[in-house]
# Entry
Amino acid sequence: MSYADSLVFKPARYGSMSVRNRIAMAPMTRRKCGEDGVVTEQSVEYYRRRAAGEVGLIISEGVPVDSLHAADGPTVPHMETAGQIAAWKRVVDAVHEEGGAIAPQLWHTGPKAMDPIGPSSSAAPPRKDGQARPDVRAMEDADFEQVIEAFVSAARISREIGCNAIELHGAHGYLLDAFLCPGTNQRTDEYGGPIENRLRFPLEVVKAVRGAVGADYPILYRISQWKSEDEDKIKFRGPDDLEPVVVALREAGVDILHVSTERALDPAFPDVSDRTLAGWVKELSDLPTVAVGSVSLALMCNDSYGGEMARVADPGPEIELIEEGEADLLAVGRALISNPDWVQIVRDGDWRDLKPFAMSDLDTLA
Ligand SMILES: Cc1cc2nc3c(=O)[nH]c(=O)nc-3n(C[C@H](O)[C@H](O)[C@H](O)COP(=O)(O)O)c2cc1C
# Structure
């Protein structure tokens, strides 16, 4: 069945950004730079291929906002020096040449950084590869100012080189999320304790970035229930926990909430209803949302990225989420790594021709 007439393949406008359809590429860190943090020509072509495949909005891999504490490893692409900025501009130009829009994901890994900082001091969370990490240092006044300035500077640069929007990474246990989670935020000052305090720093970042980029420039903000190192720890036990967070983010200046889930279709609070988390966030915040998680993928296993291989599945039910107005954009991650032309294949009704995702697809920037 062709999905050509589905709303997800129709253009949309968010503030100053126009997208030719509502399919986004989910942010995926690839760790393929040299230690200089300069995005390579292979990355330029990797993003160009997804734009040429008619992805509406490319959300880039995480871009650390500074070289002090933001990065969790040496081979992620920065956007600070003239060389790093010029290389990102080549990505932006390539995406535009192919008719796409692009938002870099601005990222501070906080407690998971190489030189970690966070709301509170703690033993560093274990790394996936089992290697030890230095302990997390609790942020002091100067750190708060420095991190806000780093987000502002990265947002300004993004805008200057022609990015159509930015995404702030507020999910997965990284710095902004670490403030939100009571488990990682044990502060006793105005940044810890009740939710309005735990939200304070993420909101300060959003407000400062909004001030720097102007009123019309779209700011996406990614939130999640889960954190990679502690997936059982649920942050939002029900809509009442979610509402103050998403409303405050909207009031601080966020335009679109990107709701990170493992399966876009899963009910967020099954005891209440079968509405998805993206659906709840949209309902409670009155903002457009991005739904994501296992679109066109079946057979996810329980390890980080879905086991060795995932089978392909009909993305019809997720496409329906957009049709029904439960979410506004649909982000596709792993399936777009194995299928740069995902949009064209699915729109034509040929989803059975999608290549299944395999972990080995991550070895190269094909
Ligand atoms: C290799 C890889 C790297 C990822 N890196 C990031 C990242 O930098 N930032 C982020 O917010 N999510 C990241 N994610 C999560 C994806 O954005 C997405 O939410 C997840 O893969 C589920 O979507 P999918 O089932 O379509 O792959 C990553 C996922 C993968 C597979």
User: Anything to note?
Assistant: The CA atoms of residues 180 and 195 lie 7 Å apart. The first strand starts at residue 12 and ends at 14.
